[in-house]
Amino acid sequence: MDGRTRHYGDFYATAHEPVRSADDRPLLLVWGNCQAEALRILLDSDPDMPLRTVRIPPVHELESSDLPHIDRLVRQASVLLTQPVRAGYRSLPLGVSDLAEALAPDATVIRWPVLRYAGLHPFQVIVRHPSDPAAVPNMVPYHDLRTVLAAHRGLGSETDWDIPVSEDGLRQAAEASLDELRRRERRDTDIVASDLFRDAGSNATHTINHATNPVLGALAQRILDYLDTGSTVRDPGRELLGGVRAPVEGRVLKALGLHGDPRPNWSVDGAELSPDSVHRAHLQWYAVRPEFVGAALERHAELIRTLELAP
Description:
By secondary structure, this protein is an alpha/beta fold.
């Protein structure tokens, strides 16, 4: 049995745990990206939770060979708790509307948002390009607009690459990030999470798309209450999405009026990386993939203007 099949044993119906196999509670199927598994762990943390869950791969890792297993679970589900996923995602029937067709008539669909907040990491962005949609830079899988602009301007790896930003610009960027999340919540979801980032303050995110346990736990509790389970989220004993932690600058905390200590370095699986080392590695990456520089400048032009990064 390969590692993936073993890790997702219940999904592939190969688990040998007698307690799980005998579990006749209604199924709560949590569907979405890597945030979904973290949320599932928290939803399942109360042993008296009246719904059972199953660990499944994130939607961006699913293949056509997984479709029979998905169909089996969806047909069993009493609740589909899903992030917005478009129909025919990755040319497979993985969207919310695709799954809804196979749900039992009395099943419930609850939509929760893709969590993304850039307040603590105002220069950090995600960039895709059709030439290689899954490509990410070396060392850390995020782009820094200051490095993007350095590559665009042809600056050398030893040239100072930081850019002064006004406190007002930092505040506007944070608010714009929340505004976008609120817009998507109004359009696509039944459960909101945008208020949770402000409540968590300087401990809201590890990266722009990896929320901390306080945010995830509050969202999980909100969902449990929405379902009227009577359950309470328990401490999972580890940081669920903390494998990669981005720097948090003191000027950002000051501009946002947040208490907390700055974080000067990246942390990747416990190893510290300096921003300068990441900057140099990304410049080298852009040198052979200049199309990502153009894509970043186009996709994030409004943020660049908000932060006044461009001359």
